[in-house]
Specification:
By secondary structure, the protein is of the alpha+beta class. Helices cover about 20% and strands about 30% of the residues. The strands form two sheets. Strands 1, 2, 4, 5, 7 and 8 form a six-stranded antiparallel β-sheet that branches. The protein has a two-stranded antiparallel ribbon with strand order 3-6. The longest helix is centred in the N-terminal third of the chain and has 16 residues.
Length: about 160
């Protein structure tokens, strides 16, 4: 019995050490991608955000993306409304430039909306990190943050 318990603990520690366990959060109708950008760097480098948004639902989902630029009021920046088909998604290696039509650094508010453009409380956004791939890049792999968490953390 002790041996079985010891083996179970060793396997658990090995899995955790290899990063194979992901603590998922409940889906929410609105979340914040806390850091995104399209920014020229030094030495002829360019930093951009590779973002994927997936609709796991069996129904199409409208999503409103609001760019919140760093150190600037975001009130003058119009939202981008997109439709994500059921069991589908959108992806861009330069999300801020290609999807948001913006540049610089900031955050992106992701909100599920209905056909009229109103907030959709039944929308399900999952704040989970994208799998990290190091093939030619240095990924950040940060998860989205629920708006309730962002408000709580700021106080």
């Amino acid at each position: 019995m002790r041996r079985a318990a010891l083996i179970t603990i060793i396997i658990f520690i090995t899995v955790v050490a290899n990063g194979q366990i992901v603590a998922t959060r409940s889906p929410v109708p609105q979340l914040l991608i806390p850091a995104a950008g399209a920014q020229q760097g030094a030495g002829n480098t360019f930093f951009r955000s590779d973002i994927t948004i997936i609709n796991y639902r069996a129904a199409d989902q409208r999503v409103r993306l609001q760019w919140l630029p760093q150190n600037l009021p975001g009130a003058g920046v119009g939202p981008v409304d997109i439709m994500i088909n059921a069991a589908s998604g959108i992806a861009s290696e330069d999300f801020v430039t290609n999807i948001m039509q913006q540049s610089g650094l900031g955050a992106i508010m992701v909100t599920g909306i209905d056909a009229t453009g109103a907030f959709d409380p039944s929308a399900r956004c999952h704040p989970s990190p994208r799998p990290i791939s190091t093939a030619g890049s240095f990924p950040y792999g940060a998860p989205g943050v629920t708006c309730a968490t962002a408000r709580t953390s700021a106080s």
